[in-house]
Amino acid sequence: MTTLIEMRGVTKTYGAFTALNDVTLSLSDTSPSMTAVAGESGSGKTTLARMMLGFINPSHGQVLYQGKDVARMTGAEQRQFRREVQPVFQDPFDVFNPFYRIDHVLETPVKRYKLADSESAARAMIEDALKRVGLRPQDTLGRFPHELSGGQRQRIMVARAVLLRPKLIVADEPVSMVDASLRATILDELKTLNRELGISIVYITHDLTTAFQICDNILILYRGNVSEAGAVERVIGTPKHPYSQLLVSSIPLPDLSKAWGGEEIPVSEASAARPNPGCKFAPRCPHVMEMCWDNLPPKYVPDSERLATCFLYRDAPVSASDDVASAFRPPNHPIAATAP
Amino acid sequence: MSVARDLKPILVVEGLNVHYDTGKGPAKAVNDVSFSLRPGERLGLIGESGSGKTTMATALMRLTRAPGRIAGGSVELDGRDILKMSTKELRETRLRDIALIPQGAMSSLNPVMRLEEQMIDAIVAHKPGMKRAELDARVQELLKNVGLAPEVARRYPHELSGGMKQRAAMAIATSLSPKVIVADEPTSALDVVVQRQVMQTLGRLQDGLGAAVVLIGHDMGLIAQFADTVGVMYAGKLVEIGPVRQMIESPKHPYTRLLVDSLPGIEVKRELTGIPGLPPPLVDLPPGCSFNPRCPLAFERCRRETPLLQQVAPGQSAACHLYPEHAALPPLPPMTRAHQELRP
Amino acid sequence: MSFLTSLRRNYEQGRISGVLLLGLGILLAIVLFSVIGPFFVDAVNAQVGAVRPRRPPGAEYLLGTDSQGRDMWTLLIYATPNTLKMGLIAGFIGVGFGTALGLIAGHFGGIVDAVIRVISDALLTVPAIAILVIIAGNIDRMNTVIMALVVASLGWMFTTRTVRAQVLTIREKSYVEVARVNGESQWEILFTEIMPNLMPYIVASFVGTVSGSILAVIGLEALGLGALDEMTLGNTIYWSQQSSAVLRGYWWWWGPPIVVIALIFIGLFLTSVGFDRFANPKLARR
Known about the structure:
The complex is a heterotrimer of chains A (340), B (344) and C (286).
Chain A: E1 3-14, E2 17-28, E3 34-38, H1 45-52, E4 60-65, E5 68-69, H2 75-84, E6 85-88, H3 103-112, H4 119-132, H5 137-140, H6 150-163, E7 168-172, H7 180-197, E8 200-205, H8 208-214, E9 217-222, E10 225-231, H9 232-235, H10 242-249, H11 269-272, H12 290-294, E11 306-308
Parallel strand pairs in A: 3-8, 3-9, 6-7, 7-8
Antiparallel strand pairs in A: 1-2, 1-4, 4-5, 9-10, 10-11
Chain B: E1 11-22, E2 25-37, E3 42-46, H1 53-60, E4 68-77, E5 80-81, H2 87-96, E6 98-101, H3 115-126, H4 132-145, H5 162-173, E7 180-184, H6 192-209, E8 212-217, H7 220-226, E9 229-234, E10 237-243, H8 244-249, H9 254-261, H10 300-304, E11 310-313, E12 316-318, H11 334-342
Parallel strand pairs in B: 3-8, 3-9, 6-7, 7-8
Antiparallel strand pairs in B: 1-2, 1-4, 4-5, 9-10, 10-12, 11-12
Helix pairs in contact in B: 5-6
Chain C: H1 3-12, H2 18-36, H3 72-108, H4 110-125, H5 128-137, H6 144-152, H7 157-171, H8 174-181, H9 186-222, H10 233-242, H11 251-279
Helix pairs in contact in C: 2-3, 2-11, 3-4, 3-6, 3-7, 3-9, 4-7, 6-9, 7-9, 8-9, 9-10, 9-11, 10-11
C-alpha cells in the first residue's frame, strides 16, 4: 500500500505543554478513506489537523506526503502538496475576506493553480463546483460573505476545496457552527465527494454520531495521546477505553430508552493539575489502577479492527505496529448494516 | 423530572408577538406564540437559526432591544403580566422570579471582577440588607449547588474552563431562587462530556428550586434527554408542541418529522438526510403556511391559509392542514387550547 | 464589469454614500478653488502694498484688504493651495513612513518589532508642538516643503501603531490561511488580502495626519515660525495678529482663512467616515 499521507511518531510541544504525543497514522493512497479524529478541546485534534495541512511542523517525528517529508520539500513539491491537501475550516465567518465578494475565494485558486485556460472555462468550473455542493450559482456568485448564511458559506468552502480536485481534504469541525438541519446535507456531500471523486477525508470532530455516520474509521485522542482507534462500529458501538466509554455515554440521543447515565462525573480540574508520566486519563478514570499513574499504556489489541491504550487490556496482545491505521478497517469493505 | 400536574401554570404566554422593524416592513420573529408551563416542568423549544427562539428568550424577560419590539400578547408569571409591569416591578421580578441564562453565558461574566463579587452584586441588588457573612455563605451554597469548589469564588472568569464558566453563570442566575429559568442554548460551545455535566447541573438546580425551565436549542437529542415537553418553532411560529416521547416517536407536523428523521444515531449507518431549502426570510413570509415551500406534503390549501395550532393527539398539538378533521371544531379561546395541551 | 456600472452598483449597495460624496465634494471644491482661482485674479494683488489697505469687503475687493495692502480674495486663492500642499506632503510622508514601519513591525515581529514599537511609543509621549517650535526656530531659511518635513517627523507614529495592530490581527484570520492554500504567495497575501483591509485604517490615519499636520503648521506659522515670505493661511493669521486685526475689527482678514481651514477639516472628516462604508461592505445600508 502506498501511503498518501503519513504521520510518523509525531510529537508537538509548546514549552512544557505537550499538544500531541508520539502519534503515528498513515492513510492509504490506493483506496480513498474517510477517517474521523475525535476528542474534546485540548485533545490535540486541531494540532494534528494543522500538521497534516503543513501549517505547523512537528517538534519530533515527521509528516510525510507521498513519501516526502513536508518540512523539507522543495518549492515545486510544496506547491503540489498545497494543492492536493486542502482544508475546510470550522468557522464560516472568518474564512472569507470581508473586502471581497465570495467569487474571490473561488477565482483565486483557479488562477493560481492554472486550472482553466480561459475565463469562461474558469467560470464554468466554478459554477460546476457550486452546483456540486447544492448551491445555485446565481444566488451565490457576486454576493458578499455577510449576505449569505453560515450554511451557504460553509458549502462554498467545500466547493472551493473540491475545485482543486485534491487528494485529501482535512475538515476541522466543518459543521459545528452550522444549523442542525443543514449539517446532514453538508456531511453527505463530503461522503459523496469521497465516493465519486475519490477524495480521502479526515474529519476532525467532537461529535461522535456524525463521525459514526460518515466515516469508516476513527481515532480518539485524549490530551494529545491516542486512547482508542479502529472501525467506527467497534469503537463507537462497543467502546473499550474508559474515555471512549465516557464520550459515547454522554452523547444525547433522541432515543429515550438510551438515557444519559445518571452518575456524576468527578470534577477533574483540581486533580488534573497533578502531573503524572502515565496515562493522562487516570485522574478521571473510574477503573484507574496503580500502574496507570506511572506508565503510559501501550497499544493493546483486545479484538479485531480496534486498539485501545489501556492497562485494562494488558492480557491482550500489543499491537505489532505503532501505526494506528493498522487497526483500521480497509475502506472498501462493505458497510456493516444499512437501515431499511 | 417531576411535573406537579395538579398545580396551576407558573408561566402563561399568550399570543406573543415580537417584531423587528426593518426597512422592508416588520420581520415577525415571534409570531402569535402561546404556551404555558407548570412549576417543575421542563419545556424545550427547538428551532433552526432564524426561527425566533432567541428572540423569544429575551422577550420573556422583556429584554427585547431595538430594532425589535414586543408587538402584542402577554407573558404572565404567577398571574402578573411581565409586559405590563412598571420598570421598578420589572427590575424586581427579573432574577428574583424569572432568570435568564443567555447564549454564550460565559461571555456575560464580567472579566475584571472576581466571581464572588459578581454573585454578591446580583443578590445585593435585590436584597440590600444582607450582611457580608450571610452573603458569603449564600455564595458558597450556590457554588456547591452547581458543583464548583469553594475556592472558585475568588477566581476571575478567565481562570475557569468553558464548562465552569457556564455553571458559574447558572449559579448567578439562580441566586435568588427564581420560579422560572430560561436557558438559551446553554451548551452551544461545549464538548459533549461537559455538556452532559452542565445539563445535569441545571436539572439538579431546577429540581432543588422546584422551578420551571424553558430550554432553547437546536439539538433534538439534547432537548429529548432533558425536557418533558417539546415545542417546535419554525419561522417565528410554534408549529407543534407535545410531550417529548410522543413528539419523537410520532411527530405529526411534517417539519417535526423531517427534524426527527434527520437525526443520526449510532446504531446503524444510513443515508444522512437534511431538510432541503432554507427557512424563509421573516420579513417576507410565504402566503399560507410558512413551511409550505419546503414541505414534501404541501397541497393547495397550504399555500392559501395559515394553519392554526390544534390538538392532533392526546396532549399534542400541531399547526398543519393535514389534520382537517379538527378544522371544523368551533374556535376555542386560545387560553383553553394551550391548557388542553399540557393536561395529562 | 465596466467602471461606471461598478460605480452604479456600489452606489446602490450603499457602499458609496451621501457622506462620502459630500466629503469628497467639499475637498474637490477647495482644490478647484485653488487650481482655477489663479486664472481669475492677478497674483500681484496679493503682494504687500499692492492695493489700498484696510478696505472692508465690497464691490471692488471681494473679501476686503488687509492693513498691508493685500487683496484678501487673491491672497486666499494663493494661500489655500500652499497650506494644502504642506498638509498633503506631511500626510503622505507621515502615512507612508508610518505604514511601512507598521507593516514591517507587524509582519516580522521579534527584535524589529520591539525596536519600532519602543521608538514610536516614546515619541508619541513627547509634546510635539514644543519640539516642533524648537526645530522650526532653529531653521534659517524656512519654506513650505521644509515646514512639511518638520511636521511629518512627528506625525508618523499613530499610523505605525494602527497599522501594526491591524496587521497582527489580520494575520490570524482564517482567510489568510485560505489564501495560502489557494496558492497565493506571501507578497500576494500582503497586497491582496491584508492591504485592502488596512485601507480604512490607512485612510483614517491619512486624514488624521493631514488634519494634524495642517494644525501643527498653522500653529507654528501663527507663532511666526513659518515661511514668512510665502503666502499661507497660517501666515495670514499671524500677520493679522501682528496688526491687532481682531481689536481693530478687520474680521475679513482672519475670518476667511479660518472658514477655509474649517472646510478642509470637514471635508477630510466626511471622506474618512464615508470611506469606511466603502471599505467595509457590512456597514453599507440601503
